[in-house]
Amino acid sequence: MEFSIELHCFAENLKTMSLRFNAIKNLATNEAARVERSEKITTVFGSNVFTLQTAREFLSDEAYKSLLSSTKSSQKIERAVANQIAIGMRAWAESKGVTHFTHWFQPLTGTTAEKHDSFFTLKSDGTAIEQFEGDALVQQEPDASSFPSGGLRATFEARGYTAWDPSSPPFIMEIGNGKTLCIPTIFVSYTGHSLDFKAPLLKATEALNKAAVDVCNYFDKNVNRVTVTLGWEQEYFVVDEAMFNARPDLVMTGRTVYGHSSAKNQQLEDHYFGSIPERSYAYMRDFETEAYKLGIPLRTRHNEVAPSQFECAPIFEEVSLAVDHNSLLMDVMDRVARRHNLRVLLHEKPFAGINGSGKHNNWSMATDTGINLLAPGKTPKTNLMFLTFFVNTIKAVHDYADILRASIASAPNDHRLGANEAPPAIISVFIGQYLSKVLQDVKERVSDKMDETDESMLKIDIHRSIPELLMDNTDRNRTSPFAFTGNKFEFRAVGSTANCANPMTVLNTIMADTLKQFKKEVDGLIEKGEKKEIAIMHVIRQYIVDSEKVLFEGDGYSQAWEKEAEKRGLPNVKTTPLALDAMVTDKAKNLFESNNIYSHSELEARHEIELEKYIKKVQIESRIMGELATSHILPAAIRYQTLLANNIAGLKEAGLNESAYNNQKQILEKISEHINKASDMVEKMIDARKKCNVLTDTREKAIAYQSTVKDAFFDQVRYHVDKLELLVDDKEWYLPKYRELLFLR
Ligand code: ADP
Ligand code: MG
Predict the structure, then answer these.
(1) Which residues line ligand 1 (CB under 6 A)?
(2) CB of 392 closer than 8 Å to CB of 515
(3) What proportion of the chain, given as a percentage, has pLDDT over 70?
(4) For ligand 1, mutation pick of 303, 359, 362 (most atoms within 8 Å of CB)
(5) pLDDT tens column, 79-135
(6) In b/e form, how buried is each residue of 695-726, taking b as 16+ CB within 10 angstroms?
(7) 232, 316, 492: residue to mutate for ligand 1 pocket, most atoms within 8 A of CB
(8) I need a surface site. Which of 192, 211, 261, 363 has the fewest CB within 10 A?
(9) 231 CA distance to ligand 2 centroid (A)?
(10) 494 alpha carbon to ligand 2 midpoint, in Å?
């Protein structure tokens, strides 16, 4: 009797001790937070942004004009004018209760960085004043020696500076009651090397502008500027904060390294576009409001396929602003989630066995005459312009597929690419049946010798078939990593935590380079006396022939496609360390150097940084797997093992024969096997890590981590741990289970 009371207390203790059971208990009382939003979106939209309209109000004519021209053409701002702008900006910020300012930038760590300084300062006689001068606006020197530089800044010269990027407007970040004026900046070393995501993006966008304007001028002399447009779609998961806190793996790595699939998964497909759960809904409305104040034009919200997975998307914007807005939003989403006792998981693969999260990058180009270069035109001339940019994109992706693949490579994205509902690591382009036929027609009907019949091709009426075209491209193929969706390409292989700047820098660069080559070839033919339109048509035809093997309309998730892609000679690099090789080939170095995006040493530095990030992430995951197995899982399994062993011994002692405890014995055998295997493997995994850590070459080390730690152990250790989860008494199990993380709200 006494014994059973003791046992009962033990169980009760366990329950109160366990974060898991506390989390489950508290869920019942966790109501959806109240979010008041009665105003129309337009009344708050951009209220925390120093827009040109605000600038008009707070700046002198001279300062305003100067700001306007530097926003449009990145012209340098004179020091005296910078002072005036700074004074106006401070006046605006103070009118909104701001006390501090910061240069806001996007270092290669993958998060955003800020260091706050107050407007408050003391004059030499000790008088306290508030000030913000032009110098502080234009340039700052953060102590940035601990940001990754890939060896670009030797330690004796660990200096980099942030420089104001007037193309992106300053904004006020509200955290609790604190308000900070954030100045978007680029981050460069004193030697002129870029140390962030933003500087190369601006260069690549400019390169594409030049190349695209040149090509546009074949069709329309009035085009003076081509901007790149980006509309990202951000996928994410939401989990209860107490559940999150009870999962050390989520806290440390953003994903669950263990967890058996729950009985119900996403197989019923009842979550996609279903009604949004109330707590998540309140959270969304709250972060949307914060986003609107910051001028982020969010438009869409909906459930995704997996349980507790959602997506939001803004109206597209000029690429550099869109990149800033995505980085900002990821930050805002994280902060606002905590207000709701929720956590947002931006990781590419937080849960095994269900969909991961991506960040589709919808990309196009627009002229200053208001034409979307990837929208089929209404007349033969605009049709040809569309066809030119369309085919050049395909050619660029074909020629530089390896570099594009490298631009989305990361440890977390490796878990996603090729897994549930995610594009494979093979870069292919989907264009839909209708445009496939158009390209086929061009290929067949434009002859090698150029003659008048070729002109008939110019009359293909793409526009008339637009409804057909849109049907063709919006609804179908979700399995392609790079799909044409009616009036833009959608790069879907980008990971949900990624900074869009990197893939956009690469895409803009390869497009610029391809268009430059295109122009050279067309001009060559024109010089030989060919008519302009015919010359263009012939180069287009050549490009279709050269790059058609990258086109794929079928199921990108299928095994058959892997085989087919191999036959076609398309690269299929599945792991990050090897995918990153493409950043430092002679081909890549020539590409980036000749377009003034990266010098050789900048590319090598970035390569090194990406490898190091990979190593650290795999290392941390491996450590947390070991720790959890040793301190959470095995103790629970062993307790249950002991209970079973005692039970069998007791029955035996009582003189019962084997049939009475046969089942217990079988369970005990299974548990013992999984305990031993898991524990052995964890030991071996630690040894493998030790071997990796003595390697000095970063690439070798990354490959070793990938093959001898991650590939050799992660799935195997997990297999045994997940089996134990099913076998061990539920109340002994401290880690919230998938059903609790994904279905309890
Ligand atoms: P879906 O791809 O889910 O069907 P939409 O086609 O509406 O959704 O658009 C997805 C994203 O593509 C949105 O962010 C939208 O603003 C963006 N988008 C639409 N047109 C363009 C364009 N010309 N350039 C860049 N992005 C665009
Ligand atoms: Mg889309």
Answers:
(1) 229-231, 233, 313-316, 362-364, 372, 474, 485, 487-488
(2) yes
(3) 87
(4) 362
(5) 888 999 999 999 999 999 999 999 999 988 878 888 778 888 888 888 888 888 888
(6) eeebbebbbbbbebbbeebbeebbebbbbbbe
(7) 316
(8) 192
(9) 9
(10) 12
Question: Counting atoms of ligand 1 from 1, which one is nearest the CA of 362?
Answer: 26
Which are the contacts of 159, defined by CB distance < 8 A and separation ≥ 6?
141, 144, 145, 153, 189, 190
Rounded to the nearest angstrom, the distance between the alpha carbon of 189 and the centre of ligand 2 is 37
323 pairs with which residues across the strands?
none
Type of residue found at 173? M
Kindly list the structural domains of the chain, giving each domain's residue range(s) and its CATH number in brackets, ordered by start: 41-196 (3.10.20.70), 205-369+377-598 (3.30.590.10), 613-743 (1.20.120.1560)
Going from the C-alpha of 505 to that of each of 207, 444, 480, the distances in angstroms are: 10, 34, 21
Q: Which of 50, 46, 113 lies closest to 86 in space, CA to CA? A: 50
The alpha carbon of 697 and the centre of ligand 2 are apart by a number of angstroms equal to 40
> Cα–Cα distance between 55 and 349 in angstroms, integer?
43
SS3 state at 188: strand
3-state secondary structure of 365: strand
The one-character DSSP state at 163 is: E
Residue nearest to atom 13 of ligand 1 (CA): 231
425 contacts: CB under 8 Å, gap ≥ 6? 405, 417, 418, 493, 572, 573, 574, 579
> Which token pair is 678?
């898991």
pLDDT of residue 434: 84
User: Ligand 1, closest atom to CA 487?
Assistant: 23
Secondary structure (3-state) at 184: strand
The rounded Cα 418 to chain-centroid distance in angstroms is 16
The stretches in the chain having pLDDT less than 50 are 1-3, 155-157, 454, 463-467
Would you tell me how many other CB atoms lie within 10 Å of the CB of residue 590? 12
CA distance linking residue 583 with residue 588, whole number of Å: 6
313 CA closest ligand 1 atom index: 14
Integer Cα distance of 336 and 325 in angstroms: 16
Per the document, the length of the chain is 745
Residue 171: its H or E element: strand 171-175
CA of 340 to the centre of ligand 2 (A): 28
Mutate to test the pocket of ligand 1, among 205, 364, 488, 508 (most ligand atoms within 8 A of CB): 488
Residue 727 belongs to what H/E stretch?
helix 715-727
**484 Cα: distance to centroid of ligand 2 (angstroms):** 10
DSSP 81-125: HHHHHHHHHHHHHHHTT--EEEEEB-BTTSS-B--EEESEEE-TT
Torsion angle (degrees, nearest 10) of CA 742, 499, 553, 317: 110
Q: What is the pLDDT of residue 98?
A: 94
